[in-house]
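Hi there, hope your week has been kind to you so far. Do you reckon you could talk me through the fold, stretch by stretch? Thanks so much in advance, here it is.
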Amino acid sequence: MALLIRNIKELVQVEEIPVKWRSGQDMAQMKTIKDAYLVIQDERIASFGKMKDLEEENYQGFEEINASGKMVFPAWCDSHTHLVFPKTREIEYIDKIKGLSYEEIAKRGGGIKNSARMMQQMPEEELYEESMKRLDEIISFGTGAVEIKSGYGLTTESELKMLRVIKRLKDTSPLTVKSTFLGAHAIPAEYKDNPDDYVDLVINEMIPQVAAEELADYIDVFCDKGFFTVEQTEKILMAGIKYGLRPKIHANELDYSGGIQAGVKYNALSVDHLEYTGDEEIEALLGSETMPTILPGAAFFLNMIYAPARKMIDAGLPLCMASDFNPGSSPSGNMQLILSMGSILYRLLPEEGINATTINGAYAMDLSDELGSIAVGKRANVFITREIPTYEFMPYYYGSNKVDSVILNGEIIKK
């Protein structure tokens, strides 16, 4: 498609020289162009600039959109979700209201293990159809790229089923989809007395089959209190790396687990959650290529302490925010809400929040050379807002969908 978007009130997150991420003080920097145009051709961003500099004769015959009063953003990059799941878990939500903790619900057979039981029973076709509905929903909020994890299988058969569904979503959805194998999401009940036996199953049976079918881009482990130890995590990561799967880690959600340091040690693309992050963890991350990723939806929904986002940025780190869309601890994939939470709960400036949900989210999926900003040559994944007064309005006016239309791979997606 050849497309000219004209009279854009403000073109947000533009780059003449693209960067792989923004960190520290640079997270508060974000270039925009007022009264702008954007040209899309052959699925790519071909040109942009001020309307007064638009050479109309070069774009005869292009489809046109008049974005007067509206803004254009790069589509959100949501680098941590579990949106392929069998059923919602609102009954556990009532348990939370009554005061049960995440760990207490898990010990009663709820949480991840509850989803695993339902996953084993759900037909693959039904799982695909339900997941596609969720993908369509997050597109409507402006998401253009998403990482989806397995981890609700906890058996070889069910984990492979999840990953096959993710692969099918990758092939059939206009979204850019990355797949992560998370067989080490929890220890199944039958292995509670011998967790190392389950680790051996993940290493010796699951990982080779995942690799043989080319079902995953990354490997993940829930390295935290009550889940997998650092030693178990490192064994699993080494096995995944052997098969070409780069690590991503659930770390330090429930305690100072050592998961952040393990992630840096094994060059994880990201370490995620990070509620328990102190000086030692920050020092480990500085100078690494690992993206610290916070998940505001989960901390909010579970009423947990919040990761020290302000301290991390002030120390010079980059920061990413993702939705953690899942049925148990973050039942929303609305990245506009995540952006608002960044300001409300973590005191991020609007520019910092936008960087955390676009270019830094792209990096956390190894996509920052393709997505996350408006730059010539990047894939044309953008959204056009409704008429809004300023880009600061995006995190400020929480609770309503401020996206008018979405363009993915240069094609207009009507929502």
Remarks:
- Residues 195-212 form the longest helix (18 residues).
- The chain has two domains: 2-74+372-413, 76-363.
- The CA atoms of residues 255 and 276 lie 6 Å apart.
